[in-house]
Amino acid sequence: MQKRLFYFLGVLLMMAFGDLVYGYSSGQFxxxxxxxxxVTIVAQTASxxxxxxxxxxxxxTPTSTVETNAQVVKVVDGDTITIKMDADGKxxxxxxxxxxxxxxxxxxxPVECFGKEAxxxxxxxxDGKRVRLEPxxxxxxxxxxxxxxxxxxxxxxxxxxxxMVREGFAYAYLSFPLDPLRKKELKNLExxxxxxxxxxxxxxxxxxGQ
Length: 210
Prior knowledge:
By secondary structure, the protein is an alpha+beta fold. The chain contains five helices and ten strands; from the N terminus they run H-E-E-E-E-E-E-E-H-E-E-H-E-H-H.
């Protein structure tokens, strides 16, 4: 009888471990403001439509919240927002760390393939939202335009920098100083998006880039 009981418990533990591994590999764990640390399992999902029109499930709603420190007042494009900081009550322009979306607002450049889609997604995710801004101690505090360089998290814990790369709305932008683990994480997410042909990696995006 004891042998059967131990065998049954062993099977349950193996099943639980399998679910845990699947959660990490499928992106169902969210990333906390302690960059790169998965902290909770997704409670709900939302649909995301790719270039071909097919819908797939995207994890966006974790079970816990994070303490926010700013309010989004404007979305500029897919990788830049304007926020009002709680600490000083002033507005600051924020450039997302470690990512780059196709150009839409630079007057010196034409609108690039998938730029409008990336900008629209950021509007959908961040317009009017409370966010938490986290600097990277190994990155610059500002870029040459005076924009603060930050990792940005929604109140529900969603890592917007990682989300945009994972879903194919942004490239991993790794030529500037950044925490090595964060660089590796973003590069892995970009490779995952490439393999899955999501967003700008879809061969049908922008009519094949024409």
